[in-house]
Amino acid sequence: MNKIVSCEWCSSLSVEKTTGSVFWELPDGTRAIEIEQTPTFQCKECNMEYQPEEIVSEIEDQLYLIDTSKIGKVITHEELMKIPRFLKKNYFRF
């Protein structure tokens, strides 16, 4: 069953699931990368585009747990999530 999603900004129910590019600073602060085809919500009422908290956490955890020196300037969300991790999970997230 599909979960009803409301806009995190204006609470409208006119939210559409889509994909988009996001720009992320690497955890060590050395540079930023573009992550293409990232799961995104787009509100038809206020036109806000945003990533749900689960996706934000997923990206942050992955970037903490992989060798980011092997990532180029641009990567797809799917490619990023397939990179093998040093640890199974982020043990520092509470």
UniProtKB/TrEMBL annotation:
The protein's name in its UniProt record: YokU family protein
InterPro entries recorded: CHP03829_YokU (IPR022451), Znf_MqsA-type (IPR022453)
NCBIfam families, sorted: YgiT_finger, YokU_near_AblA
Pfam families: YokU
